[in-house]
Write a structure and sequence with these properties.
By secondary structure, this protein is an alpha+beta fold. It folds into 6 domains: 49 residues, no CATH class; 184 residues, Rossmann fold, CATH 3.40.50; 85 residues, Translation factors (Elongation Factor Tu (Ef-tu), domain 3, Beta Barrel), CATH 2.40.30; 74 residues, Alpha-Beta Plaits (2-Layer Sandwich); 106 residues, Alpha-Beta Plaits (2-Layer Sandwich); 112 residues, Alpha-Beta Plaits (2-Layer Sandwich). 25% of the residues lie in helices and 32% in strands. The protein contains 15 helices and 34 strands. The strands form 7 sheets. The chain has an 8-stranded antiparallel β-sheet with strand order 14-13-19-10-11-18-15-16.
Amino acid sequence: MTPVCPVGALADSLRPMKNRPKHGNADDTGHQTLYLSAGSAGTVRPVQCRPMTDTPLDHIRNFAIIAHIDHGKSTLADRLIQATGALSDREMTNQVLDNMDLERERGITIKAQTVRLVYTAKNGQVYELNLMDTPGHVDFAYEVSRSLAACEGSLLVVDASQGVEAQTLANVYQAMDANHEIVPILNKIDLPAAEPERVKQQIEDVIGLDASDAVEISAKTGLNIEGVLEALVHRLPPPTGNANGPLKALLVDSWYDQYLGVVILVRIKDGRLKRGQKIRMMSNNAVHSVEQVGVFSPKMVPTDDLGPGEIGFITAAIKTVADCNIGDTITDERNPATEALPGFKPSIPVVWCGLYPVDADDFEKLRESLGKLRLNDASFHYEAETSAALGFGFRCGFLGLLHLEIIQERLTREFDLELIATAPSVVYNVYQTNGQMTELHNPVDMPDASTIDRIEEPWIKATIMVPDDYLGAVLALCSERRGVQADLTYVGNRAMAVYRLPLNEVVFDFYDRLKSCSRGYASFDYQMDGYAESELVRISILVNGDLVDALSFIAHRAAAEHRGRSICSRLKDLIPKQLFKIAIQAAIGSRVIARETISALSKDVTAKCYGGDISRKRKLLEKQKEGKKRMRQFGKVEIPQSAFLAALKMDA
């Protein structure tokens, strides 16, 4: 393969001669000649870098990499960047597009990232490739959907040893809904356990996609990466667009930079986007002047403009979060488009919990931090709330428990906040006897039981793929969580079980239990499947007779006593002893269903009595007893923050 120069060098080649880097020479045509290392042998070849500012549409390819978790998306992205010379060997790191510490530590992709590559095909044509690396976890499916909307094709990466997994199916169906051309890629064929022919057959049987010409690679070693690049340019369709029409740009993503303000990732559909241009956001009619236009290579490289089919970034000194709506259409203020682009379906949070600062003085800091994260993550929602136990905080909506965990970790790391998270809850539909229906995000807001006609809870359609050896344990787990089996099929020695499950039974520890009972071999994906009536009750936790609203939760009546006993037992070990007895109770309405008692901290009031009549000791003991009775009536129990944190990580 003939290596080509990185886009950064392309930008250099467009600058005046005096600004060009000292390495390399300019030839008579004005093209910059760079010398890049090609391959492990260290051979050096001169490469002609061509300006790509006016790339013809049929030489542009926009594609996303989709796959199940840990099937090699980010590693393949690394090899494509390396093979096209976008970064030198010295600049390359593992998971180069995963720029968050959390992504590197956990080995997962959280935010979809984009990079422009330039590739000279075997036929001598130069192509501009816009790559989008997407997350694999079900909680970040919204990131995947946004990336797919900006592309025309997808690389479907499947592990040649593990085969098709649950999230593989979910992502490929999203790509099909976006009318993508899909190229199957079999990764990890260098592993001893790899079975390419079996996996190809599995792709055809399970997905219904022709895998006879799937590209077999090893992203780790770089084997056959050139085959992927050739498949990209010959099998994926080019974008369409009109460079002379009114500007239409899709706002794909945005994030906050402390120096540049809001950075917006855009996909140009029609027209051109230039530096200095006045642009209008079609959703709210906000007008801004473009300060910078550029692309990621993967470093930020400024350019003069972006044309149809191209993906890049702009900055316009935008400071307010409300001015940037993901999926919005950007157009020219003087020559606006008549119709907006379709955009994206709004994300719907499925898990809610309260986030409170440990230090009450950090409330405003938390508000600002949530605003910046909301700009960076359109699927995250929040609203202010108060708690008698925890003070002022926010009720936050997430796409799943991993999403919750990541947001909480980012608030701690990036904004230096110490937080308490309440028990996660899903959104219930509460129908009252007066005919009114309300959405219940917080168990504390549940109306009085006498006014409730019925409660509906959200259900999901879960797809679980598991080796046959562990199927029994998985089916038992689903039945235990009130699951209803919808389908059970086999592909080779793997079973695919489809279950309808209440979301409330999944958000606590279902995923962990599933991995435990299948020794990590099961894969899990779900989609919302409407609401259904259930017999649900609110369980209130009382400490010394006082309601602790942050620990209230909703559960099915059949599991209420078990869950109540579990949290009471845990709080008994977490709350420090006082000089009086403390009753910890779980109650449904006014009926107590579980109780634990923390014994009083004993003090030997008779220690100074040496001898004498026994009545002296009895008098002191009676006095102590009366004092403890008064303390139990008027004493307040302070629950330490550590007790809240531990109690809220309750096992189901």
